[in-house]
Amino acid sequence: MVAAARAVVCVTLWLTVCQARGFTLPAKMNKTISNLLQHYNISSKLRYSGKPVFSRELLTGKLETKKLILGGVLEAYEKLLDQMLKELPSPGTQTATAAPIPADKAGLEVGEDVRTQLTYILEKVQDLRKHHYQEQDNILQKLHALKHIQMDNLVVQNKALFELPRLYSEASSLLGEMKKQMRRRRRRQARRAKTSLRA
Q1: Contact between residue 3 and residue 9 where contact means Cβ atoms under 8 Å apart
Q2: Residue range 103-156, pLDDT digits in tens
Q3: How far apart are the C-alpha atoms of 147 and 92, rounded to whole Å?
Q4: Residue 140, exposed/middle/buried by CB under 10 A (0-12, 13-18, 19+)?
Q5: What predicted TM-score, i.e. pTM, was given to this entire model?
Q6: What is the CA radius of gyration of the chain?
Q7: Where is the signal peptide (predicted)?
Q8: Same-domain check for residues 130 and 87
Q9: Are 129 and 137 in contact, with CB atoms under 8 Å apart?
Q10: Cβ neighbours for 120, distance < 8 A, ≥ 6 positions apart
Q11: What confidence score (pLDDT) does residue 78 get?
Q12: Are residues 63 and 127 in the same domain?
């Protein structure tokens, strides 16, 4: 009884530690985003309208799917941040719609301060995408190329029919391979769980 209680406490502690070591946004990046949100100020009604730019539903599914979608989301953020940088007034000019200069930044031009902050966020997004989502970029480019196949071209139609048996067979065998991997993973996890409970 004591051993079982000790095992439950250990497992609970282990799960708590694993959850606590998740990634958090760097403090500088968090502060920069807060500053930018103040500059690009919209009403709460608009912000919380129930229609996010990037829906949470995009991130439901398997890990591979999430990585692929996040690669696309990061690419979209690069384009969005680049567009925001292009829309900023050139250095030395200030528009009538610009937010007032905060007291702690009174010596800086608002456009340049925002430009610096947007550039910092853009560099962080590019760095993450470059170092961790390169494979997803390649996949997205290949998927994009598939959208441009000429469906009404007789040569394309004939070649596609000729290639279908090979691709269909490969797609079917991939499903079988994925099921095998899932069974292996479950067996490994079951063995680990048994050995950790014995310890």
Answers
A1: no
A2: 444 333 455 699 999 999 999 999 998 888 888 888 888 888 888 889 898 888
A3: 44
A4: middle
A5: 0.61
A6: 25
A7: 1-20
A8: yes
A9: yes
A10: 28, 29, 32
A11: 93
A12: yes
| Phi–psi pair at 55, nearest 5 degrees | -65, 145
Question: How many independent structural domains does the chain possess?
Answer: 2
Chain centroid to CA 43: 26
Two tokens, residue 192: 């680990």
Question: Confidence class of residue 79 from pLDDT cuts 50, 70 and 90?
Answer: very high
pLDDT of residue 9: 34
Same domain, 76 and 163: no
Structure tokens at 135: 């494979």
Looking at the fold, whether 81 and 114 belong to one and the same domain comes out as yes
Same domain as 157, residue 137: no
Q: At what angle are helices 134-147 and 63-87 packed, to 10 degrees?
A: 80
Same domain for 19 and 40, yes or no, is: yes
